[in-house]
Amino acid sequence: MTGTLRDPRTATIEVDRPADFDDFWAETLRLTEAIDPQPQRVARPDLSTPDVAVSELYYTSFQGVRVAAWCAQPTGPAPADGWPAAVHIPGYISDPGVLKSWARRGYVTVDLAPRGKLRARGAVDPGYPGLLVSHIVDRFTYTYRGFYADIVRGLDVVAGLDEVDASRFGVWGSSQGGGLGIVAAALRPDLVRCLAAGAPYLCGIMDCTRLTRSYPYEEITEFLRVHPELEPQVRETVAYFDGLNFAPAVQAPTLLHLGMRDDVCPPETGFALHERLACPTRLRAFDDCGHDAGLAWVGPEIERFLDEHLREAAR
User: Fold this and answer.
1) For a disulfide at 259, which of 171, 197, 240, 293, Cβ 3.0-4.6 Å?
2) Domain boundaries in the chain?
3) Is the whole-model pTM more than 0.85?
């Protein structure tokens, strides 16, 4: 990396994989799937246009938490097999948006909002900062357990929409959206057909506390400064949520993009993720970019990448 003593490509990132990692997530999904999601669509004609129909999508997830998302799709009748789905996952402090441009390109586009965002704040609202260390000393009560389940359940709900062709299902996002995309593709390998992940957060979590002093990872550093005796419990908990432990289960072709000067999600962890992905992967690393991960340049490539797997592959 030009101008620094660090070489993110050669860094060693270590994450222990708990022996019961798969069992923990199988049980989490079982508990989630035991709850009727009760999906509901609420049309928003005030936000719609002649060519894009906008709605709010609600569903019930893990622990009975009701969450919401924005949905945008082309107006008019869907093709016989349905529209392809492009699901976006927002970042740590970002709320989802209405992605009309993707609907105009022929997708049912949903921007998911796990608990703590949009209309789920009444049920769960750890704050930002705050989320990363919310109940962090116990994997069973760690707030991110529900976050991960919300994303997976959201994919299930979107796949079940009448106008969606569930055989053409893509996911993309950056930062927390990139990290949760890895989780979603790992836990729903039969559904996710392609994934674009930028500056993936929640990868190499404990190593990030020594590689950066930026938030959100600084939340853990501050927590352990006050509670140093709890480091073993924290380390044990986050191992169940680390994207590097999910990576080997990802089967979907993946476009991974990183900023080599990222001080939020250190690029070392992005390269470690790349090493652990066994799926077909394109890696784009931008030397002079930070946490944006080169979005200005890679944005059109993300569109082409999803088109390649979700639209052109169907021809």
Assistant:
1) 293
2) 15-314
3) yes
